[in-house]
Amino acid sequence: MTSSFVMSGVTAATMDPTAGPGYGLIQDAAIVVSGPRIAWVGPAAELPAAHAGLEHRRFDGRLVTPALIDCHTHIVHGGNRAREFEMRLEGVSYEEIARAGGGIVSTVGATRAACEAELLHTALARVDALIAQGVATVEVKSGYGLDRETELKMLRVARALARHRPVRVRTSFLGAHAVPKGADADTYIDEVCIPALKAAQAEGLVDAVDGFCEGIAFDTKQIARVFEAAQSLGLPVKLHAEQLSHQGGTALAAEYRALSADHVEYASDADAAALAAAGSVAVLLPGAFYTLHERKIPPVQAFRDRGVPMAVGTDWNPGSSPLGSLLLAMNIACTLFRLTPAEALAGTTRNAARALGLKDCGVIAPGMRADLAVWDVAEPAELSYGIGINPSHARIFAGET
Questions:
Q1: What pLDDT, on the 0 to 100 scale, is given for residue 1?
Q2: Fewer CB within a 10 Å sphere, N or C end of the chain?
Q3: 387/372 Cα distance (integer angstroms)
Q4: CA dihedral defined by 343, 281, 216, 156, rounded to 10 degrees?
Q5: Most distant CA atoms of the chain, gap in Å
Q6: Cα 120 to chain center, whole Å?
């Protein structure tokens, strides 16, 4: 049962944009937690008398941030693709593997063969790894079924994660992830993907609708049909766009006022302007960039110049980004994409929340969820600076430790 208490002896990186650029840092801070919400935050010397009598939990100068948010994952799936990892190191490209029947389609068979209990067991292990690094909210996609029953199975498992662990889960229907072997793309969209989406929505399994707009997947006209179906169901959209080439996906996402356009390595300045006008987030996924040995980095400066919010996710999946650490994703985003540590932390807190359409988390402010991470570090930049280091001290989820 949640209670009211004061977190004292902390440095608070509020990530509140109203506090100015950077971390919104408050030295020698106090945070009042009242049930599942934050009631007050500020300098400890200014703690209101109404809260002074509450239990004080001291953290000896540790850093407190909003709990992290992984806004792009594929953690419900069967099997792995370690052999493809070897093939890429031997010189075979991601696209060549996909066209030869590997890639996403190879995971489809393993996922179809696995029962819900098996998928839940393996997904829980992945969620545990994220929770251990201060994550409180995880987005989980379908997309390894490519048929009605398996897509629904994946989404049911994703929903079940929150019943087994103290974590918030947002689901994305990704039926338009790949064309099944031997299928016609247009026929698949109209006769399998969209009907599966409608069935998933009828079961209450969908929070958003995603797609993969790429030469090895679906074109903009096909994705637009999926987006039209999503909008008819009252669901927001997001899109894997401009990862391997420029196909026009980012502009399409902006046209439909998508929550986010993800990957966006090949996005242009015009795409950045379109995202800004639409209020969409650019989700950067450095794990896939790193794993696939890509060379074209996202247009980070264009996003800065246009005021496009940038989020950072793991893209944890069995093929292109077997990355189970959001902290490492932050480090890679800084090292390879030249984000600042402040941008990386904003990308895994407030901007990640925005990429999921969430308005009640991602910053430390009164009225927000008391989803907080306590770290054994002296300053926020250390979270992006460390490589393979987990400085997590504690995690508070909806006011509970």
A1: 47
A2: N
A3: 22
A4: 100
A5: 69
A6: 19
- Average pLDDT in the 20-47 region? 96
What is the sign, positive or negative, of the torsion defined by CA atoms of 150, 288, 329, 272? negative
Residue 117 is encoded by which pair of tokens? 């209990």
In the block, tokens 């402040």 appear at 342
Query: In 3D, which of 149, 229, 152, 150 has the Cα closest to residue 189?
Result: 229
How confident is the model at residue 101, as a pLDDT? 73
Collapse the DSSP code of 37 into the 3-class scheme (helix H, G, I; strand E, B; otherwise coil) and give the result: strand
Helix, strand or coil, per DSSP, at residue 374? strand
Q: What angle do CA 210, 219, 243 make, to 5 degrees?
A: 65
| Under 8 Å between Cβ of 189 and 171 | no
pTM: 0.96
163 phi, psi to nearest 5 deg: -85, -20
**Residue 62: CB partners within 8 Å, gap ≥ 6?**
9, 10, 11, 374, 375, 376, 377, 393
Ramachandran bin of 263, using left for φ above 0, alpha for ψ from -120 to 50, beta for the remaining angles: left
Q: Say how far apart CA 54 and CA 37 lie, in whole Å.
A: 15
Structure tokens at 213: 């707009």
Contact 262, 240 (CB under 8 A): yes
316-353 pLDDT per residue, tens: 999 999 999 999 999 999 999 999 999 999 999 999 99
Instruction: Read off the pLDDT of residues 75-121 as tens digits, 9 standing for 90 and up.
Output: 999 999 888 888 888 999 878 887 777 778 789 999 999 999 999 99
Residue 180 is classified by DSSP as: P
Determine the distance from the C-alpha atom of residue 268 to the mean position of all C-alpha atoms in its chain, rounded to a whole number.
22
pLDDT for position 162: 98
Read off the pLDDT of each residue in 150-154 and give the average, rounded to a whole number: 98
Mind listing the pLDDT tens digit for each residue in 233-287? 999 999 999 999 999 999 999 999 999 999 999 999 999 999 999 999 999 999 9
